[in-house]
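Inputs:
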Amino acid sequence: MEEEWTPKITLFCCNWCSYAGSDDAGVGRKQQPPSTRTIRVMCSGRTDPGFVLTALMEGSDAVLFTGCHIGDCHYISGNYKAKKRFEMLKEILDEIGLEDERLQLQWISASEGSEFAEYIRKVTEEIKAIGPSPLRQEWMK
Amino acid sequence: MEKVGSVLVVGGGVGGIQASLDLADSGYKVYLIEHRPSIGGGMAQLDKTFPTCDCSLCIESPKLVESSRHPNISVLGYTELLSVDGESGNFIAKIKKKTRHVDINICTGCGACAQKCVVKKIPSEFDEGIGERKAIYIPFSQAVPNKATIDIDHCRIFAQNKICKVCQKACTAGAIDFDLKDEYEDLNVGAILFATGAVPYDPSELKQYLPDHPDVLTAMQYERLMCANGPTIGHVKRFSDGEEPKRIAFIQCVGSRNPKIGIEYCSAVCCNYATKESIITKEHNMDTDISIFYMDYRACGKGFEEFYKRGQDDYGINYVRSRVAEVYESDGNLTIKYEDLAEARVKEEQFDMVILSVGLSQSKETQELITSIGVDLNRFGNVATTIDHPVETNVNGIFVCGTAQGPKDIPETVAQSSGAAGKIGSLLSESRNTLTTKKELPPEKDVLGLEPRIGVFVCHCGINIGGIVDIPGVVEYVKTIPNVVYATEVPYACSDDGNKQIFDKIHELDLSRVVMAACTPRTHEPLFHATCAEAGLNPFLFEFANIREHCSWIHMNEKEKATEKAKEIVRMSIAKARLLEPLGRGEIPVNQKALVIGAGISGMSAALDLAAGGFPVYLVERTGELGGLLKDITSLPNGEDPKQIVGETIKRVEENKLITVYPNSEVSDVSGSVGNFKAKVISPEKEEEIDFGIAIIATGGEAFKPEGYYGYDGKRVITQFELEKIIDKVEANTIVMIQCVGAREEAPRTYCSKICCTEAVKNAIRIKKQKPKTDIFILYKDIRTYGTNEVLYTKAREAGVIFVRYDDERKPVVNEYVDVYDEFIGENIKIKPDLVVLSTPMVPNDDNAEVGKMFKVPLAPTKFFFEAHVKLRPVDFATDGVYLCGLAHGPKPIDECIAQASAAAGRASIPLAAGKVIAEAIVASPDEERCVGCAICEDKCAYLAVTIEDGKAVVNKAMCKGCGTCVTACPTGAMEQLHFKNNQILAQVKHAFAW
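Outputs:
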């Protein structure tokens, strides 16, 4: 029998909130599917649209923007800027017809380990439901 | 005799931690002792903080870690102070380090012992008894020190004399030693700070509230219940049946404002935390019905009134002004019987859960310890201080901060802590830097332009990683990756052995990059950075791969996939490591002179503290006189003489050779940044250019003139502030005072002015004392004599002052008579006063906007200045080198102004004493060739660190915080974030998966 397919999800975490929330999930042994690869940035405001598009073209089935909750940004307002960039990317990806689930934004605080794990489980299921990214397949042709 | 350049801080809550960091940063060796196993205090237990609902541990945890890693702070958990000998400048403090039966030099905090321990279901102190722990335990996951402790009252070996040793077997590091004994030590210190905090009031004697019922919790227990790292991982449910409560009641003033149980004071925080807990509950489930039963709602603090309003308007919290008689159980439900004060009748209502908003009290042990050392307590059982010396005890060289000194919230605690640290810094300034250590490092090896030689260390972390991930498999895989010249497995990379191995291999194999596959960089990166630096490798050539928190611990049942993922995580880190560049941490020299704007009591106090630390101060005052508002105040709530305080302070300022006073002057043309400011001081006579390293804004405020309110004319209808000046000459048989005139209304005066209620009762008592026959009516919305001012409210009522409540729908009408609805008798009453006194709020200075613009610091919507962080940085601005204190920050009484002034001076002393500031290494760095000067980066920077000069972006490294937001915004790729460069992150992206 063929092994169950695990999606490849690139996860951008800010150093102060969502990376710490992901750590907290680990400390609490909150089990998650092994679908994510984390890239730590200091602030979600550093998540460059270029990184996101590269990840998708390299074959990520989804890319997640995560950071501090609005109002909690360690750098005052970096997460607002992340949100704007996310929305801009969303428009581009909509335009080319990529499914909505493949680019997501989630605010996670440093103490929300349970929420973090729950979110990763949820996203993984969503991506499993829609299958591998068509971008990867297009690219390989 | 020379003073000793070290300080003992007793108590590791947020106050003690802040003071320790400030002291250590300003050149003193600090011993921070905490009797509990870990530091963090009550703040670590909170879910969120009011009024911003910030996650409490998220904002406190970086401070815990910073203090534990500071080279000049010894964090001694599980340690008690026994006695103190000696005198100011040279104390001997005897301490007892209680044994944990765990060797803290070996314990890695992995928690394997607690997982295996068979003694379960011990009520967890950290969870306030509603959660459980084992007999060997680490209180919470981010605990500092992160070390296990054996509770000998429950351990099978100690309590039951059994042979067990399960934990010892589980500990592969070999840290557990049942024979370890308590250790005693004498510390020689120059000063002592009591930051011993307070404890939540234990309501067990108040049987009328059913404190033992499983669905009646204290607010602190409820805080744990809501918290994601609490016993129910944040699910609010009843302990009786596990159901989610639909109706929750908060009962206020449990263990506060209750002379019957010997607690006269108001605890000052409970109203606001009740609203916070209600809002969070509502955010969990908007359908939950919440009622808060309160007597007077006391939103006395910056942003609290607005928070209260949000609770009412946005969250629909039901605030019931009442007195609760009892709580009783019927049919599994809880019924609250109370007197509804608005309708003056007794009612009953059913709830699923009842939260007791318990006050802050002092533990007997702490009080006994403090008094045994000769430090006086006041009648409330807190450390006694005076208005003009809010952080100094009766014993020279012994200081106090936080709730040990009286009930208060976190920002006030933090301000006092920085204030006490500042005072201690000035006291011991001759011995600054005498006991601090600084590591000498070897020269760094050259790596630029050379082919990377990468060493990879894969940590087993006992069985934490090695039990899941196939470590030898990872090592073999890593060896196949280009540029990896060495890969090995280590049992515990963070141990001394592990670090020695890294050190040796850097030398032996001439490694130019190190990758550590282990736990999280958030806790361990600084340790390995230090090891690399000691081996002559620039620390920024080190990269972490988190295969524990992000892999082995979350894929415990998928060993193969976990191993596969671990390989990829390490490969990503190697890809980044290959491209890493050494970074330098530039030093910016600091001009050791200070500017203080405003010479009221706050500005003068700050100037004096700075001068006491040896720093020259320019003190600029807009008016012709020193003393600000305080010189017009004629009495103080506790009976101290304001004239004497202000008079002595002015005299000390005028006599101080280090302080240059500029009366009738204003500051203009400010330029520069932290360390190197320039400005002009302009007076009608002259214009002078000054240079300074830091600035303190103490521009004060003024009393609101209530033109158009209640027929204000300055004669028969005057303000409370005007009454203050003429109070000894008042000829009136009947006086009506009206509270909240022009406050707690529409923007910008949405706030509660904090001091007016105390001011009104103080003046009423004073008049009653002079002429007992005078009839005095105080018309109020809530009487907000918060904290220990509560006793004045009691005293005023005893003196016969009549309090009549009004609300916004039925405001009093002032003509010849004052007409007001009295809810107690249920009808309007008419009073014919000779004098009407309007209590008006403090309002910000009209030139705040201008001052703010000059120093690039923001104002809040109320037009008071907006600090860097409402909770933890109350006197700092986000802009480095500029500080804030007193009324410029918001309305507050004199002792709080003085504490903030000391705090601002103390914080400012850190760069001044060091003579330099260390620039961030991870900063934005523009490439001049590619920059087109579009200024998008300038617009994106929240710290004003980027400017366009001669058509090119320039980053001020002293101001850049390294978030990288401008880098992402740069359309030409000219801006880079060091250590997170575009090519470095892209390399990670491309190596993320085995495609």
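Remarks. Residues 9-140 of chain A form a domain with the Rossmann fold fold (CATH 3.40.50). Chain A touches chain B through 56 residues (CB under 8 Å).
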